[in-house]
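Hi L.,

As promised, HAD family hydrolase:
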Amino acid sequence: MAVPRLVATDLDGTLLRTDGSLSDRTRRAIVAAEAAGVPTLFVTARPPRWLDELADAVGGPGIAICGNGAFVYDLVERQVTASHGHDPEVMAEVVSDLREAVPGVTFAVERADGMGREHAYAYAQEHNAGHTVGDLAEIAATPVGKLLARCPQLDPDEFLRLVQSVVGSRVELGYSGAIGLAEMTAPGVTKASGLATWCEQQGIAAAEVWACGDMPNDLPMLRWVGRAHAVANAHPDVLAVADVVLASNDDDGVAALLESLV
């Protein structure tokens, strides 16, 4: 396909530069590609509350697939329009099993109405304002889109391997590059499932979508679309499945792709 109907892109490490900024070139490229009939859709591990800062840059439909597919977020209206959460009983079993297998593990949750965390949960990249703090029953009082676990006492890679061995197929364990953080969505909930559902609603086929990513949590999406793009700084597993390797995120690789469509 010479020109796709949609470009779906990850944010951190892909569309955004390493410092988390969106370059002026990328902003212009999103606008120009949309004017040429190719909108850009954000598909990210970020929770809804981390997207408002990009509301002025979103193009096309004005929404984002976020939380690794758990939420659809309207950046214009600043509200979650759809969510796919954990079964509370299954999630409670997963948490119980992880507490037994990983002493010192702590938990947080992402919900449509914000984040909740246990008192002991701490993460350097988090914004602490507005969190619900309490035990699991308190922080999971409303449906949970993403369950987060941390155990700083363990090596990050060892921790993720241990989590995977405990949770099995009861959750989807996604790795977005956040070191030492286990990000878990409900079974079958991935960037690919969120993107596929949205595209079906819009009458867009997988073959008509191009996608860009950099980390293993992007793999389901990259395998689903018609053409997969990896930025040069991507994880080796992502580079291995890419149809096209773009310039790095710091060199505006996705912007160059969008510019080529104009």
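The first strand starts at residue 6 and ends at 9.

Thanks again for sending the construct details.

K.
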